Amino acid sequence: MIDSSVYNYINVLDKAADAAWLRNEAITNNIANADTPGYKRQDISFETQLQKAMKVSKYESVDAKVADLKARDMQGRTYTDYDNFSYRLDGNNVDIQTENVTLVKNQLKYNGLIQSFNQEFSNLKMVIK
User: Could you tell me the pTM of the whole model?
Assistant: First the structure.
């Protein structure tokens, strides 16, 4: 994480991309274990943590809230989704079709984050020139 106010939004994009990458790994792990008895679906919590961190900030403007964010507030955390739920007799709660759709959605999000990342650096390069 870069410690300068110039990079506040880049830091958020960086952490969001990291979380999307972790989510991609979790989804592919879910797909690989779709037929494993007793396996429970894993996911990454990032967006809700970021929203909470933004809400508890004492500042009014989005720029000030983003500047106030700490790295620990933007860590993706793995959790077991619907731990006590299973619609299958073997105790597995992975739906392969849902996982495939979620994987595509996450890949689109990741690509959008990378494009935003590149745009932020292009803006910085333009200012430097």
Answer: 0.83
